[in-house]
Amino acid sequence: MLFRSLLRWTAPLLAAAVSFNAAAQSGTTLRIGFQKSASLLTLQKSSGSLEKRLSPLGVAVKWVEFPAGPQLLEGLNVGAVDVGFVGEAPPIFAQAAGATFIYIGFDPAAPEAEAIVVPKDSAVRTAADLKGKKVALNKGSNVHYLLVKALEKAGLKYSDIQPVFLPPADARAAFERGAVDAWAIWDPFLAAVEKQSGARLLVDGRGIVNNHSYYLAERGYAQQYPQVIQALFDDSQAQAAYVKANLKAAAAVIAPLQGLAPEVVEKSLTRYQFGVKPLTPAVAAEQQKIADAFHTLGLIPKPIRVAEALPGRAAGAVAEAAR
Question: In a 10 Å sphere around its CB, with 0-12 CB exposed, 13-18 middle and 19+ buried, how is residue 177 labelled?
Answer without folding.
Answer: exposed
